[in-house]
Design a protein that fits this description.
The complex is a heterodimer of chains A (843) and B (482). Chain A has 843 residues and is mainly alpha-helical. Chain A contains 36 helices and 4 strands. Among the domains of chain A are: 38-137, no CATH class; 231-379 and 490-579, no CATH class; 384-484, no CATH class; 738-840, no CATH class. In chain B, helix 10 packs antiparallel against helix 11.
């Protein structure tokens, strides 16, 4: 049995190999015949070198042995001190590399001590590569993509989108049939969850299912893309990358007010801001000419770094750590490369030096922020409307105050006099308390309280004083919201940047100027080398990675696995793309044709025949394409923590549609613990609809993130998270079975079931099922749900106390006209519905 | 077989964990890799018990973290010369080019106010603050030449538990769980207990799985409410009703498997059954009132309280049930002298009382049950404390010490160690390592060695690099091994 699987797998992988061609290929654009016609450096040799040889013969000159560097032609082919040449084009006998990899004993490369061994196949690859001319190529992802031509396919009618041509060509090459199209109910739920993070209502789904027009699906997708929930769903993905959270991190983990940045992301995504602009504003919105408040707010992206206010910390040390994080995160998010490795030494596998690392560091090293607990500099944000309102109120306030002065020039003196003379025991308690402090010790609020009380007693102020109080109260409602932003140091205060030897900010090396790593295109010469230049450099058409990395991210979100399976690493040690031409086609199309329009990109993906396939796994498919790397069926994988929670609230009718604003605190179990040197970690739960907001509005405290979401793999957001794992654990089962939030959702769902559907058990079971899963249930499924209902009902009918608890704790009293035992039993059924595997995954 | 395919395997193998949750992809692949049992098990059940590559000396770890870092100079590292020079200016050569958290200028040397004595056959120096521990001195292995790179709590804890002062790396317990799996599938393999009301400084990053799959992260058991989150059924639902509902859930999920054939669904069915068993296993193991009175008293535990003593007793109970890595964090060891409770005189003796009793009881109890030989008990802070009075409290009547990364003491007990020895020493004033320095990474390498791992070989590919607990450092401290 194991052997069969093994064989099938071998075939599948051998098959994968056939279709592989990179856009970087130069020497062999002719189609491969049989097995590889030629060995290609980028595809075949470089991965072996980076895996086994670069520790001593890679781009890092430290620790380099024998003066030999193998990743570039000039150094690999030169005559070494020993008189040998590692690589001699076409000459196997004189290429030392061949002799050494085939050597036995101490001469062997890689050396026996290194724990690295090459397989015979790998050794032979070196040999063939030399025989065929030893041509060097650049790593595939470092060469800007060119648009490949669409491949020919047999089954032309299956093609809905260029995506399909690439996928089908590959399937046909492997003699696979694409899967049948999923039914419309399945599609209705799948695409709604993918685009908005929520299922459709059964009515919205029915409308689509019964729409006979040929463009029914397209119209349905357009409707979803236009929903505000679209921005909320995709903001979650971006906020992981931005390491957005509501606290400073480290030991104290003080609260941080930066939710305006989160709201900016949602707004920008809903407005379909082109991805290049979206990028530029976040990295350098403050450096744009006359930046708007929104553009400043966008720079909060890099103010999501941690702040360490623990006693005895050095601000300069943690400011440097924040700058390091900005460098690393920028290259992770936009280019999928691991610059972080070059902070302390030259990169071991990819060709970036430590000096180049600090050139980028120099770009980010010029902002004002320096690890302050209040995260200054902050933008004090007021919307245009609010600002107008506030100005009007302030004008009125000063007008009233002037009137007051005119009317009563000696008011303050009068009050002082009164304070001395008043019979204190006749005054109200609060005023007595204020008078208990000497005047100098009263806080502004107490002074206000006292003045209000005193003035209210003066007849001539009877009208004026209440007006003043009213305006003041109104003014306090229109307060600016602080949000941390990037702010460049003034000229004359600019920092010089020196290399941090071994990454130590106190151990400084030579001075470096701002710049970017040399394997890539240079910064625009006409621009000062600052963050704005860097931002534009990232989205420059010459940038080989940004577009690839971005389309790969969208692909991964939709299809469950990226075309490049290592989204956090597109460097030399990355996994090779499974469909390299598809990746490049999408990358070019996204920039050139779609002009960075993400809604259009998503629409293209979800409209494809590839996406619309049924997710059914036949035993044959399971054997031949177990991981669905060929996209021979529709995507099916577990949803994110937020989607799982939002969905439960949505189908039960509890979910609030309120958008934006300060983060909320849904109920969570108490820990009884405080943060180290910091505030308690327990919170008072939000009330009203704030209990039921979408997950992305949940207060995200880094040291103790919301536990039920953590259980479903939500990150702590201390660092940039490129992709979340998708685990399947018993702790997750406990959350969705027993967390009071999910129990409450089950109770609410039970009430919906009873209220909205007929009185038969079958009708109710069907309705509940459809609310959750959209598709009509099978007969067997209804029978099983009804059977559970009856069993539960029998028990609850005999146990009034348990029935009441089951139906009402924590949701609240049984609505009039409903029966407790019935509701309790439907709650049990609803609890099961909310825990169906199908609820966690797309179908 | 094509060469390209071979290359692809290199890549894919490193990434196969990524596929684990996806289904059988990883499984078929692992067969190809000839790494069958390991990869296959990890694929089917990431927590399946696994053998380490080398014969292990121990199979369990109980880590007792004294959060804040106890004043080792007042507990174990006796410095008569420092006592003699108490109150003198600190020699400049110790201060030059160094940063301290709360001290600048020239502080005054601070000899210990605690009385020290030698104990056991081994003659170990232990102060009067730890009278009970002194009675088991011959079971302990001291390292008095520990040093670290970090002098603020959070980064130092991160370095200690994850091998790096930056966030984002897996913790030691996660690495061990990744390497060994769990012996009891009804309980998490890596459990964390927190006492004295405060999280450690690096928060849950001390037990984070970092970039490892999150099944390997530590599960914090709580002393308030559910010991494991949501392990109790909702009010009104008893165990038989839960069973009824899970039966229906299983049947409905089975219909789904029959129709769509997703192996993921099958896995989920299993997880729900596991959760059902956890619902009884967890409250049972967490209920210390099931222990005989004299055992409870020996630890100084109190059923229902949230104390370090309770956690020590729980650690033993969890260990008996097959939990392999148990990490205790106890707050309140940051002895700056900023309050009477953090002063190294009476404050220290008071704080030590409960810990001294519980730790001694734990080691005796494990020994009595024959569990000590297969367990490693580790006691220590994230750094040490300075041999001088810290800046802020220099003129206060209360004596306190600053953070000190340059030398400190930890002790261990358990299997694979030479007992009753002291390894390494600080210099005569307790400033620097005197001899046989043990860096945090060396210490981690040694723990991994005792568990049967070569710390350089237990790696995980992330961002193109094979990461490991010890970064690119670490040497096993052979001298302490039996």
């Amino acid at each position: 049995m194991a052997r069969c699987t093994l064989l099938a797998c071998l075939l599948a992988f051998a098959g994968l190999a056939f279709g592989f061609r990179t856009s970087t290929q130069t020497s062999s654009d002719k189609p491969a015949k049989g097995q590889f016609a030629t060995v290609q450096f980028a595809r075949d040799i470089l991965p072996i070198l980076s895996a086994h040889c670069f520790t001593c013969h890679g781009p890092d000159d430290k620790g380099r042995k024998a003066g030999l560097r193998l990743d570039v032609a000039e150094t690999a082919t030169k005559t070494l001190k020993s008189g040998n040449r590692a690589v001699v084009s076409g000459d196997v006998n004189n290429s030392a590399i061949v002799a050494r990899v085939f050597a036995i004993g101490d001469d062997r490369m890689p050396p026996p001590k290194s724990n690295h061994t090459l397989k015979d196949a790998e050794k032979n690859l070196f040999k063939r590569w030399i025989e065929e001319g030893a041509e060097y190529q650049r790593h595939w992802s470092f060469v800007a993509p060119k648009r490949p031509t669409l491949p020919e396919v047999k089954n032309k009618s299956w093609i809905r989108s260029p995506v399909d041509a690439f996928v089908l060509a590959r399937l046909e090459k492997e003699s696979f049939q694409p899967g049948p199209e999923a039914d419309r109910y399945t599609l209705a739920r799948r695409v709604a969850i993918d685009l908005t993070g929520l299922p459709p209502s059964p009515e919205m789904a029915d409308l689509f299912v019964s729409d006979k027009n040929p463009d029914a699906y397209e119209k349905y997708v357009d409707r979803l893309l236009a929903l505000p929930s679209y921005g909320e769903r995709w903001a979650q993905v971006w906020l992981d990358l931005a390491r957005y959270a509501d606290s400073n991190g480290y030991a104290e983990d003080q609260p941080r007010m930066i939710w305006k940045f989160r709201d900016w992301v949602i707004g920008a995504i809903n407005a379909n801001m082109p991805f290049d602009q979206f990028s530029i504003e976040q990295i350098a919105g403050d450096l744009l000419p006359n930046p708007t408040q929104e553009q400043l707010m966008a720079t909060g992206f890099h103010r999501n770094t941690l702040t360490n206010s623990e006693g005895g910390t050095s601000r300069e040390e943690f400011r440097n750590i924040a700058v390091v994080d900005r460098v690393n995160t920028t290259f992770q998010v936009w280019m999928g490369v691991t610059m972080a490795c070059a902070q302390c030494h030259n990169h071991k596998f990819d060709p970036y030096t430590q000096e180049e690392y600090f050139q980028v560091f120099a770009i980010f090293n010029q902002t004002e922020d320096n690890d302050q607990v209040d995260n200054r500099p902050n933008l004090m944000y007021l919307s245009a409307e609010q600002a107008k309102h506030r100005a009007a109120l302030e004008a009125e306030m000063s007008k009233l105050q002037n009137e007051l002065k005119k009317l009563h020039p000696a008011l303050d003196a009068m009050q002082e006099q009164w304070e001395k003379e008043a019979a204190k025991d006749k005054l109200p308690k609060n005023i007595q308390a204020v008078l208990g402090h000497v005047a100098a010790k009263r806080n502004p609020k107490q002074k206000e309280e006292l003045a209000d009380y005193f003035r209210a007693k003066l007849r001539e102020l009877k009208e004026l004083q209440p007006r003043l109080i009213r305006v003041r109260a109104e003014l306090s409602q229109v307060q600016p919201v602080p949000t941390p932003i990037m702010k460049e140091l003034a000229d004359g205060q600019k920092r010089t940047t020196k290399i941090h030897i071994r990454g130590d900010f106190l151990n400084l090396g030579t001075e470096v100027k701002p710049g970017v790593p040399s394997p890539f295109h240079p910064l625009h010469e006409a621009m000062p080398p600052n963050r704005l230049a860097l931002a534009k450099w990232l989205v420059d058409p010459r940038n080989p990675l940004t577009s690839r990395v971005t389309v790969n991210r969208y692909w991964e979100q939709i299809f469950g696995v990226g075309l490049v399976q290592t989204p956090e690493d597109f460097g030399l040690r990355s996994s090779m793309p499974h469909h390299p031409e598809l990746l490049d086609w999408l990358a070019v199309d996204f920039q050139e044709t779609l002009k960075w329009d993400t809604k259009k990109l998503l629409k293209m993906l979800v409209s494809s025949s590839t996406y619309r396939q049924s997710s059914k796994v036949t035993p044959a498919l399971a054997e031949r394409d177990p991981g669905n790397r060929l996209f021979s069926r529709g995507p099916r994988y577990r949803s994110s923590a937020e989607i799982i929670r939002d969905q439960a609230l949505f189908v039960s009718g509890l979910l609030s549609t309120k958008m934006f604003g300060p983060s909320v605190r849904p109920p969570q179990p108490k820990t009884g613990l405080s943060a180290a040197f910091g505030p308690g970690t327990d919170w008072t739960a939000s009330t009203g609809e704030d209990k039921y907001r979408r997950g992305l509005y949940t207060y995200w405290r880094r040291t103790t993130p919301y536990p039920s979401m953590t259980t479903f793999d939500a990150p702590t957001r201390t660092v940039c998270t490129v992709n979340r794992p998708r685990t399947n654990t018993p702790l997750q089962a406990l959350v969705t079975l027993n967390d009071p939030c999910y129990v409450e959702a089950a109770q609410a769902l039970a009430r919906r079931i009873v209220k909205e559907s007929g009185s038969t058990m079958d009708a109710r079971a069907q309705h509940g099922f459809r609310l959750c899963l959209i598709r009509p249930p099978g007969e067997q499924e209804v029978r099983r749900l009804v059977a559970l209902y009856q069993e539960a009902h029998t028990t609850f009918a005999k146990n009034a106390k348990e029935a009441l608890q089951m139906a009402t704790e924590p949701l609240g009293p049984v609505p009039e006209g409903m029966h407790t035992a019935e509701l309790a039993a439907w709650t049990v059924v609803a609890n099961v519905l909310l825990n169906l595997d199908e609820m966690f995954a797309k179908r | 077989m094509t060469f390209e395919y071979e290359n692809r395997l290199h890549v894919t193998r490193r990434h196969f964990l990524r596929d684990c949750q996806v289904g059988i992809g990883g499984l078929a692949l692992s067969l190809l890799l000839g790494d069958r049992s390991n990869a296959q098990d990890r694929q089917a059940n990431p927590l399946a018990p696994r053998r380490p590559p080398f014969a292990p000396k121990v199979k369990n770890v109980i880590y007792l973290h004294m959060a804040g870092s106890p004043p080792h100079l007042d507990l174990f590292d006796y410095k008569p010369e420092l006592v003699r020079r108490n109150g003198q200016d600190c020699p400049q050569e110790f201060l030059r080019g160094r940063r301290f958290a709360f001290t600048s200028g020239t502080p005054k040397l601070l000899g210990t106010p605690q009385r020290f004595g030698q104990h056991g056959q081994s003659g170990a120096w232990i102060s009067e603050a730890m009278p009970r521990l002194a009675t088991i001195a011959d079971d302990l292995t001291f390292i008095k030449s520990m040093y670290t790179d970090q002098f603020n709590h959070a980064p130092a804890e991160l370095l200690l538990f994850t091998g790096s002062p930056q966030f984002g790396r897996p913790s030691m317990g996660s690495w061990v769980t990744y390497g060994l799996g769990s012996d009891n599938e009804n309980l998490p393999g890596f459990i964390v207990l927190v006492s004295s009301g405060v999280f450690p400084s690096a928060g849950n990053s001390d037990w984070s799985s970092g970039f490892l799959p999150s099944v390997y992260q530590g599960v914090q058991c709580r002393s308030e409410g559910d010991p494991v989150l949501y392990v109790s059924n909702p009010r009104g639902m008893d165990r038989s009703m839960r069973r009824l509902s899970l039966d229906a859930l299983r049947d409905l999920n089975e219909m789904q498997v029959a129709e769509l054939g997703s192996p993921e669904t099958r896995t989920r069915i299993d997880q729900y059954e596991l959760a059902f068993r956890m619902q009884t296993a967890v409250p049972e193991v967490m209920d210390i009132s099931r222990e005989p009175r004299q055992v409870i008293d020996m630890y100084g535990a109190q059923p229902g309280a949230a104390s370090f003593a309770n956690n020590c007793l729980l650690a033993r109970r969890l260990l008996e049930q097959g939990v392999r890595f148990i990490q205790l964090h106890d707050w309140g060891w940051d002895f700056h002298g900023t309050g009477a409770a953090e002063a190294i005189t009476e404050g220290l003796r008071t704080k030590c009382r409960g810990m001294d009793q519980a730790v001694t009881a734990l080691i005796r109890d494990l020994k009595h049950r024959g569990l000590l030989d297969e367990t490693l008990v580790i006691w220590g802070g994230e750094f040490g404390r300075s041999p001088f009075r810290e800046g802020r409290t220099a003129n206060s009547p209360l004596l306190g010490r600053d953070h000190h990364p340059f030398s400190f003491t930890i002790f261990m007990a358990g299997g694979g160690l030479r007992h009753g020895i002291t390894h390494g020493a600080s210099d005569e004033l307790g400033f620097d390592v005197g001899d046989n320095g043990v860096h945090i990474h060396d210490f981690q390498a040694t723990i991994m060695h005792l568990l049967g791992f070569d710390h350089t070989r237990l790696t995980f590919r992330f961002q193109g690099r094979d990461y490991r607990l010890t970064d690119v450092h670490g040497n096993v401290v052979e001298a302490i091994l039996a």
